[in-house]
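sorry to bug you again but im stuck and you know this stuff better than me. what follows is a protein written twice so to speak, once as letters and once as structure tokens for the fold. mainly i need to know what kind of three dimensional shape the backbone takes. anything you notice is useful, everything is just below:
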Amino acid sequence: MFRDENQFEDKTLICRDCNDEFIFAAGEQKFYEEKGFTNEPMRCKICRDAKKQSKNRSEMFSTSCAACGKEARVPFEPKDNRPVYCSECYPKNSHR
């Protein structure tokens, strides 16, 4: 059974990235409990948003497909000793 929102109190936390204080509001705490989250947030909203945005802008690398030779764009830096496949060839070669 979940606690009523009135049983929570706003908490002041310190952001791990910018070291600024931020409020972990009672409503947010209730949401965390309902979702089964056991840890408090470690970043303020500004730093959380910045972290999400940086993940969405991950660098893409261009290489040649090991099977057909077409350009393959991948979110990791290819290594010379590992084959990289384009999106068309990957399903046919991913079992190797």
Notes: Residues 65 and 83 are 8 Å apart (CA to CA).
